[in-house]
Amino acid sequence: MAASRMPALWLLLGAALTFGVAVSPAEGSRSRRHYDFFIRKADYTRLCHRKSILTVNGQFPGPTIYARRGDLVTVHVHNQGDKNVTVHWHGVDQPRNPWSDGPEFITQCPIQPGASFTYRIILSWEEGTLWWHAHSDFDRATVHGAIVIRPRRGTSYPFKKPHKEIPIILGEWWKGDVQQLLAHALRTGGEFQPSDANTINGQPGDMFPCSRGGTFTLPVEHGKTYMLRLINAALANEFFFGVAGHRLTVVGTDASYVKPFTTDHVFLAPGQTVTALLRAHRASPRSHLRSTRYYYMAARPLSTNPLVVFDNATATAVLEYTDATPQAGLATPDFPTLPATNDSAAADAYAARLRSLASDAHPARVPRRVDERMLVTIAVNEIACAPDEHCQGPNGNRLAASFNNVSFEAPRHADILGAYYHHRHRSRSAAGGVRVEDFPNNPPLLFNFTADDLPPELELTARGTRVKVLEYGAVVEVVFQGTAILGAENHPIHLHGFSFYVLGTGPGNFDGDRDPAGYNLVDPPYQNTVAVPKGGWSAIRFRAKNPGVWFMHCHFERHMVWGMDTVFIVKDGNGAEEKMMPPPPGMPRC
Fold first, then answer.
1. Residue range 52-92, pLDDT digits in tens
2. What residue stretches are annotated with the Plastocyanin-like domain (predicted)?
3. Per-residue exposure over 198-209, b if at least 16 CB sit within 10 Å of its own CB, e if not
4. Alpha-carbon gap, residue 86 to 84, rounded angstroms
5. Any bridge partners for residue 219, and if so which?
6. How far apart are CA 332 and CA 293, in angstroms?
7. d(CA 485, CA 402)
8. Does the predicted TM-score (pTM) go above 0.90?
9. Measured distance CA(404)–CA(566) in Å, rounded
10. Cβ(257)–Cβ(541) below 8 Å
């Protein structure tokens, strides 16, 4: 059943807005930090091939933002590139401040070449590892970096402070121009070309040609503990990550602390972060025995849909004991044991171990009463090919994706947040458009979502700009239900403006009478990106206390482009601190 085409949302027809910066009383006491980001092209060589890529400050990966819990960080973005761009601060709630959230045509018009915009990143409860990335086209392939949020001054980690912290960013590299690959896929309606290599901190590792000299190396000393701030910045791949000869103690995910547990490997879906401690216990300098000086760190992809071609290469980096006895010759580092590229059970088992710390300093406040329940089906679909087109998707159609069989279509001449704000502060006629607030709470048709033999008519969907409006303070429970339409697979679903409790996950079709009895309401993990398992479901819950316009989408980039997205609009509350801030000066115009 295909969703009907809907008109554009709050069409903004050139009307002017009044801008000003609202400062809440709490902001006056925040520590402030400032960064300048210059978006510009830079030449990089990978896989024996040199090409020009979009970067921040000429760096790939980009610069790390360092802050403390509760800080206010301003980032002045200067677009010196040749295309429009926006930047998103992934996992930062941005309380009352959707204007600095970043997704193009959702909360802002893009920053045009030669223009600048200042983002205000308001940190609140977040503490741990997050990241920033471009949120325009496929720019985040090379425009991304870490956000390190340390405890407030006068407080400490809920574990012994490590000797050093190191961002470890997992990503991908294409030999070709990513924007041209995107344009080709959108023009033809076919699949996107997979990457030519996976990377660790921008490098594929010494198993690839022309790569030995650039391989990322982490120097360590025996007896010291290191904090690895792991980030999956990939567009298309989920990853297992491990270090040969060492176990990792997981202490956080998505800037929220978890009950520590030790594991041989971690799993990260695109968008997710993991904070893990590594104790350098090998290669003692006092030992008279010859010991290994080098150990491989490795990232191996997971692919859960055999119908999708993917980059199955393993990226490597090297952990080096700088105080170990030098070894004669070039010793080959030990390699970690990682799950196979199709071992979805290992990914599910890892996720099941995540539990919030739930301490006095870092409590788990799981809402018990639910005001709004949603069942959201996740699917890769087809859209009928136009008569004058030659499409290269399944059955001669265009590939698409959807939530509840609505393939989201963002406006291209306005942003939803600006249009919504304008609509609230002007008459309906002055807004010059139509409000479409009917994103469905349930799929249009109930069927055996995870069956292997689904009828072909279920594959079709249609575009629509449909959003879900929530009352301020409402408790929302969303069950994401995977489907087998065009093949079942994992889906990393990210919500802007909120983190949420992942109450439960399971195989097959969600049973509303049986499955909630197994929810974890005591210490569920608190995340901003949930990896919905192949052929299964995940249930999340959050309290809508952040007024504004907030994007929700799959973090597989091609799925997002195809329409596996929607928007939550949270209304203002009654109190002064429960209302969305007005737009800042200098918002980019479309």
1. 999 999 999 999 999 999 999 999 999 999 999 999 999 99
2. 40-153, 165-323, 439-573
3. bbbbbbbbbbbe
4. 7
5. 320
6. 10
7. 11
8. yes
9. 10
10. no
